[in-house]
What we know:
By secondary structure, the chain is of the alpha+beta class.
Amino acid sequence: MTRISWPLVGGAMMGLWLLLPMSFATAGAKSDHRPASSAAELSTIRGVVKATAQATLASQVQGRISQLPFKEGQRFKKGALLVALDCSKYEAELASAEAEHRGKKLTYENNLRLAEHDSVGTLELDVSQAEAEKALAAINVAQVNVKGCTVLAPFPGRVVKMIVNEHENVFPNDQLISLLDDSLLEIELILPSRSLAWLKVGMRFEYAIDETGLRYPAVVQDIGANVDPASQTVKVKGLFRTQPNNVLAGMSGAASFTGLSR
């Protein structure tokens, strides 16, 4: 008959039970600790410089290009003439509409005076009034067409691209010119979503631009409204603390938040 030494077994079991809590505690500590963002991540955040406003303007009417005062790269002020079309056709239509309205208005005013003496029927008076209003509406349409012959700058900036050439014929919705406002440049960054644990509006960072080889102080202006679920990233907008003269929209670089408090 085999005898079991219970003190030995009990001692081994007690040692096992003593080891198990320590193992579980160590495993728990390893799984619970997750750093927000490493220094390597924070020093390699890529971004691109963007203009605060960009637009591609299109034609509202059909016509022949008569003027293109600015060339690509040139600066312009708000309200400056960017594109002009030959407007003789629409100006003639406006003059015709104005003449038509004058005649209809005189007829209506005459019927008003006759109506005071019961010398004209109510129907005839109402019809003359409607015709005068219709002629006025035609003037408004003609004025819109005349206004569409000139394309004015909606903001101050620079010409990015001339899409048409002088003397070409264009139609409504044809693209004419591409512009941007570089008076206030922005920095668009893509950060890991874990950065939201410490990232705040107003936080300062440095932005190193590849094309210039220089570093520029900047500040976080806006943080994106949502996290991209596929890449687990968030879009962040920054502003240069002092607008640089040698930086153009489209330049790329890297932002550094290294050393900032989380």
